[in-house]
Amino acid sequence: MTPEEALVIAQEKGVDLVEISAKASPPVCKIIDYGKMLYTLKKKEQQAKKAQKANETKGIRLTFRMDSGDLDRQRDRAEEFLTDGHSVRIQLMMKGREKAHRDIALEKMYTFIESLADVSKLDNTPKATGNQIIAVLNPSRS
Q: Is this prediction's pTM over 0.85?
């Protein structure tokens, strides 16, 4: 039909005539509510953005001389991230002479990881690189 006829039909129904594909021959138009179409497109974008954001990697930093109170606070924080569905990167920092005691630092890292065993599974085993030890935990599916 001609664009004029389509415009008359759209005005009778109280909706808009929206051009969908201008490059097609003949151009494709739809009789729809333009505001509603924009609203649904915006909602789809928000859902896609939300799904993309859910796969974020959060970070937790520990130090060699951290006491049990600080470790408990960091454990609670990591547990919160894991229950939200994020993966957690645990980083244990060492300074100066602490670097000579990697075995103690690895032991501290493993005890921290074991305390989160009920809500996570170990993705990467702890690796010592330079002055830090890094491990990655993913949320468990249960």
A: no
